[in-house]
Amino acid sequence: MKADMLSCPLCGGSSSEIGTKQGQWRKKDYTYRRCGDCSLAFVENPDCDFSEIYDDDYYAGNGADPLIDYCFEAKDPKRSIREYEWHGIVEIIRSLTDLDPKTRWLDFGCGNGELVRYVRENVGCEIKGFEEGAIARSAVKKGIPVLGREELARLGWQFDVVTALDVLEHVPHPAETLGEVFRLLKNPGIFFYTTGNAQPFRNRILKWSYTRPEIHISLYEPETMRRGLVQAGFDVSWPGYLPGYSSVYRHKILKNLSVRRRRTLFDLVPWRFLGRLVDWKLGLSRFPVGLKRHD
Ligand SMILES: [Zn+2]
After folding, report:
1. What pLDDT does 67 receive?
2. What's the distance, Cα to Cα, between the start and end of the chain in Å?
3. For residue 179, which of 169, 170, 188, 168 has the smallest C-alpha distance?
4. CATH for 99
5. Whole-angstrom Cα distance, residue 262 to residue 81?
6. pTM confidence score
7. What is the pLDDT of residue 101?
8. Please, are residues 216 and 65 in contact by the beta-carbon 8 Å criterion?
């Protein structure tokens, strides 16, 4: 593969074409490229009509990602398997920092805002979401504090914790997004995110089921994220497999089996063991965490 002048949207390095993949939802070809410096894999010609991609059908699982069902989660959160994920995320954040009533937490790209609601009801710290479009408006109607871009700027708050769960793969300009997160954090502050780890799939990235070119336009390896975080001003830490990951994987495994509702039967599954096993293959916990801290 020969590098050309098309530069990487994360580090500015030169990139090479990996190949093309047809969208399953939009039947057109998308070209993936890889940065020679930071290994970011990205779509060269992403669709940026976000209000059409992320419409009501998308959030109901009838759009570019058939595995999500934000509507069911929002309608019946206590019976949704998504609660396993929220539980796991809170456990992970608790192991990284103290959560008390004064803690300010922003869930960046919060979708339907259900993690925000869950944290408000179960943790008791100050949390707000950030989201755009119709899904944000419906969350606000339900009383969930979800801010739009302008409100976020006007609020002038800074946060102790920022989370971005399965968000970074959707953004076309990751350097800008990481810079924005850095600015939103207090010093000291902590940035925790989840995104698919492209490293185990490096040689077959176009065949990876996560590679959905309409929506997953930036794919990262742990080293890609380390570079992106440092470039944005963060220090990084590598906490590895924290206990909450078992619950995060519990949700992911069930979601991939197209299960939506929680069942007591699932409690019989050895999730701690299974979570570690799946992490060994997928490596979500191999990503670094971003720390903003005093010089
Ligand atoms: Zn790069």
Report:
1. 67
2. 41
3. 168
4. 3.40.50.150
5. 5
6. 0.92
7. 94
8. no
DSSP 256: H
For the record, the structure tokens of 107 come out as 């869930």
Measure the CA–CA gap between 235 and 187, rounded to whole angstroms.
Answer: 12
Distance 37 CA to ligand 1 centre (A): 5
Q: Which domain holds residue 66?
A: 47-195+233-292
Classify residue 9: in a domain, yes or no. Answer: no
Q: For 232, phi and psi rounded to 5 degrees?
A: -80, -10
Residue 138 φ then ψ, to 5°: -70, -30
Q: Rounded to 5 degrees, what are φ and ψ at 233?
A: 115, 0
* 285 assigned to some structural domain: yes
Q: Note residues around ion ligand 1 (Cβ under 5 angstroms).
A: 8, 10-11, 13, 35, 37-38, 40
Q: How many domains does the chain have?
A: 1
In 74-116, which ranges are E strands? Answer: 104-108
Q: How far is ligand 1, taken at its centre, from the CA of residue 198, in Å? A: 14
CA atoms of 89 and 93, how far apart (whole Å): 6
| pLDDT, tens only, 80-113 | 888 999 999 999 999 999 999 999 999 999 998 9
Res 1: pLDDT: 45
Q: For 204-231, write each residue's pLDDT tens digit.
A: 999 999 999 999 999 999 999 999 999 9
Residue 190 lies in a domain: yes
CA 7 to ligand 1 centroid distance, Å: 8
Decide if 274 is inside a domain.
yes
Kindly give the parts of the chain with pLDDT less than 70: 1-5, 67-70, 72-73, 295
C-alpha 288 to ligand 1 mean position (Å): 17
